[in-house]
Fold this protein.
Amino acid sequence: MTDNVHNKQEILEKYREAGRILKIVRAEAVEMIRVGNTLLQVAEFVETRTIELGGRPAFPCNISRNQEAAHATPKAGDTGVFGKDMVKLDLGVHVDGYIADSAVTVDLSGNSDIVKAAEEALAAAIDLARPGVTTGELGAAIEDSIRSYNLNPIMNLTGHGLSHYEAHDEPAVPNRHVEGGAVLKEGDVLAIEPFATNGAGLVHDGNWAEIYSLVRKKPVRMPAVRNVLKQAEEYRELPFAKRWLESDRLEFALIQLEKAGILHSYPVLLESAGGLVAQAEHTIIITQDGCEVTTK
Ligand code: MN
Ligand code: MN
């Protein structure tokens, strides 16, 4: 075995280990999603349990409900509780920067057909994934599955590639028919994540954000801002939660860092017609004749 091949195997093993940790955490967290339980308790459980099992959060535990499609996470001291909601739990785990990304929908709202549509679309895309297939073909399978339930896929959200310390790399994996797209090849690591809705099939930015990431390194002078930047830098380019940072001038510092183009914020994404949204997501590695799902 050459060093290069050796290295490739070690990397694949880290992707698998991230997946193994994620599966345990996901199963335990799903049991905590019950009417009356707090969101913060679930998010903190996911993040501390991930570390306990030898991984690191690749991004804050996302808990998005109902018309929130993605990017919601509890704020510090959040007292919000689950009601009869459609709950998306989206987790990321990394081992030395190699990421597993997976989401499930726990339906407490009595609309399980929307969840089934998202899950079936994910299964259809996974069935197709192999070298030579295009991301456009995956998108077509996703859209067809969801439409067979008389629901809409969310057209302006996509799956994505994963790479070292990079949670949203190329190629995008569309959730709808598109011409062409990237051709999959052995060794590609992808997160496929269909969203199904009884709304319009589009999301827009809400007016609040609890998740940020570092996009540019640049020196800052004010000590309070510098202190927050130093904490943010610990997460490299991976997304982090506002509640993970400590500062008595946190809001001020975040505004300054965002204005300077150093931090990027991820506003909560809302379904444009206020529809309920379900999501299903797995991470896959393209193999010689199909794919390996690291998070199943
Ligand atoms: Mn995800
Ligand atoms: Mn993802």
Summary: The mean pLDDT is 97. Residues 90, 101, 103, 193, 281 surround manganese (II) ion (ligand 1) (CB under 6 Å).
